[in-house]
Amino acid sequence: MVSLQIKPNTYYDSITLMIISKELKKVPGVKEALVGMGTDLNLDIAKVTGLSSPELEAITPNDFFVALDCENEEAVANALKALEEQLNKKEESRSAAYYPPTLTSALKADPKINLALISVPGRHAYDVAKDALDKNINVMLFSDNVSMEEEKKLKEYAVSKELLMMGPDCGTAVVNGLPLAFANVIHKGPIGICGASGTGTQELTILIDQLGSGITQALGTGGRDLKAEIGGLMFKQCLNALINDPETKVIIMLSKPPAEHVAKEILSIAKECNDHIKPVVVDFIGGDPHLPKEYGLVAAYNLEDAARKAVALSKGEPVPADMIDIDMPRAELEALIERETSKMAPTQKYYRGFFSGGTLADESMKLSIGKLGHIYSNIPLKPEDKIENPLTAEYKENTCIDFGEDEFTEGKPHPMIDLTLRCERILRDAHDPTLAILQCDCVIGYGSNPNPAEELAAAIAKAKEIAASEGRYISAICSIVGTEGDPQNLTETRKQLEAAGAIVVRSNAQSTYLVHHMLDKLNGGKY
Fold this sequence. Notes:
The protein has about 525 residues and is α/β, with parallel strands linked by helices. It has a six-stranded parallel β-sheet, with helices on both faces. Helix 14 packs parallel to helix 19. The longest helix has 23 residues. The mean pLDDT is about 90.
């Protein structure tokens, strides 16, 4: 039986609602539970999970609802009781702590505040960020759905005051050793990062840490900063900050390929630095590596390649050879491929990349598109490969989905926090007779789910069970964005994924190269 309760004009944050939904599913007799605000995404989820109803279709994003599918009335009553207990617990927690209601009151409590991390709905973000800049406070703007015009105004204003305005949609930064938003426990070291990419910056920092070095600063700019409309305003500001930082000995510039004139400007600044002050490594993800070389800079072919080269330079060692394939002895690689593919049915020819990190999804596709021709996605490299409604779309050959896109996060926590949608899609695609390989990232560290590997491993194990029951075998290839120092711990995360039958490799690039080798075997050497 399906039960629905609606509270008009009642707001709860998405993290609270995610936690409550998970708790309600644990109540005996509850088959499905969805607690959320009335956003389009949550209404779509209700349809997919069989919880939709005419009453639910009529609500607005300002309305709170709980939809339950229970075995009987007693289970409904127990679930609603648990709901009230969870909401009351949230209110008690808030009342026990002091939350300054405004920036002005926060400054009264601590006048030394000089950086604000802002996460508010996009329609309010400009005013809140402008208020912080007015007060000479640097800004990290986590919020998305901010217009390009507003972003440019904020950044021009910040530059005029020699302040940082990282964002909008800036998800990762490390400033003076302090990790902000999604970040990891990283050793301090000589490498500085200027990144127009959140998860990409995270992966760079953890690889640098795993390779035995560390970072000074990881300054984010937001993904649109290098577009022609913004002109690299904050990238240039952050790059100059790293150039002038005496503790930074090597700089990594990370972004998707910039607009042409913006690329020339930042590469010219980097060349001056590289020639006279400190070496610069450039990873324009999927871009032409010959462009940085024309400026005398060190070009990287992927995130791990960038990390390896920066660490070598920081130690005064020669720049290592380009990393353009999986780092595994040939005999070991061939044995692994044979072991995995020999269990598959003749129909299994394709892979699915399901990512919580947008940069990792993009890097994977850009490393693969030349071989595969078409990769269907909600962030496609070719317009004709666009997937509409990726939550409900049918299986389609080689597919890569970024679950961190706005379409998945309206009224829902980021997939690094809430893995539900990604795990549900994994189980759905497990029934596809053409699916051979699952490729996934698992992001740990500050801001992420307390144990993302637990849910991801369970989904992978279940997907393998589904395939086995239908006479097939699915190979799962994972990379972990994390360090031994992270609360979830790199080694423990790896153990959980491997226990579910996943192959875990060092980086997103290496997992992608392994996918290439396996698809090549499955498709008769086509790739």
